[in-house]
Specification:
Alpha-Beta Plaits; four-stranded antiparallel sheet; 31% strand
Length: 98
Amino acid sequence: MAVTLINVFSVPKGKEDEFVKWWQDVKASITKQPGFRSGKFHRSIKPDSKFNFINVAIWENEEVYWKAYGTSVSPMKKKLEQLGVEMVPALYDVAFEY
């Protein structure tokens, strides 16, 4: 069953453009991972939002997500620390649609 990754980011003021440029590079490798279906990257329209970026990605199932996470998390965390970015990822199932 497909799972949805919702990953929220708190990017410090002045680091937004560097973060977006870095994410473009990260996205290139993530989208090639087995089981990746689709993704959308969101930027808050309010500059003072705590979580000013949100990544929403659909993965084939939880197992393939965790495999991809295992290969990419260490270098990602290192760069996020350099930028001072807080990241809070979680996987979700659809509870209902409306």
